[in-house]
Amino acid sequence: MSPLGVVISIVLVDVLGFSIVMPLLAPFAREYGLSAGQIGMLFAAYPMCQLVAGPILGRLSDRHGRRPLLIVSQAGTALSFLVLGLSRDFTVMLLARMLDGASGGNILVAQAYVADVTTPKNRARGLGLIGMAFGVGFVLGPLLGGVLLELPVAPSWQLRLPFLVAAGFSTVAWVLVLTRLPESLPADEDSRRAARVLSWRGLVDTMTLPRVGLLVAVSSLIVLAFAGLEGTFSLFLRDRLHWETKRAAFAFAFLGFVS
């Protein structure tokens, strides 16, 4: 398998793990008596830490290589899912979500890897394949999460199992990075320039380009709307429509399919 194929596979497996638990986190937290405010904090912790850590990881990967950063961040993601699946304490859950968010910059590093191993001519195709991996993962992940909820396990483990499976997926991605992904080096100045976008300075410089700032603002509003849905949709279906959690997971899979 080519390095591009390996990194796309890593992104797919990583998104599968994330999307398995996405529709289940709120019911899981509710199961242990967390308040609405605490559930909101759990959902907010991930993007907040990802926002801070993403450019930092991108910059570190410019200096020390993509592979070491992907190894560390994938290990952090796997550990966060494992801790979430085994914890009953809000503080521990919050720390696990923060670790997951800080490790979530691995997607940005994967995009930088694609910039390294592609030419300007086929770079859009490589980044498009990452987008495709996201789409497939967001459909299959909730489906798998719903199926896992139907397995005949002890009630106390029913909502924990998807988190442990997600940790397993992240571990698979970590093994792929460790065994199949060679280090990439920018082949030319265009690749280096694409990689620099992943620093804070690069992000600010990019947003000052004509119309890019407006595009980022519109995209932020779209993500804001989705984030609100992500944190409340499962509970809405459960409390208002009396849906089981597994049906909510299937609803998320349908949303991923139509989008």
Q: Identify the overall geometry.
A: globular
- Name given to the CATH homologous superfamily: MFS general substrate transporter like domains
The amount of beta strand, in percent, is: under 5%
> Percent range for helical residues?
over 70%
CATH class: Mainly Alpha
CATH topology: Growth Hormone, Chain: A
Low-confidence stretches: none
Instruction: Please state the average pLDDT score.
Output: 85
First-residue to last-residue Cα separation: 29 Å
The total of beta strands comes to 0
Derived structural class? mainly alpha
Number of discrete helical segments: 13
Number of domains: 1
For the biggest sheet, the summary is: none
Helix-strand pattern, N to C? Answer: HHHHHHHHHHHHH
CA radius of gyration: 18 Å
CATH architecture: Up-down Bundle
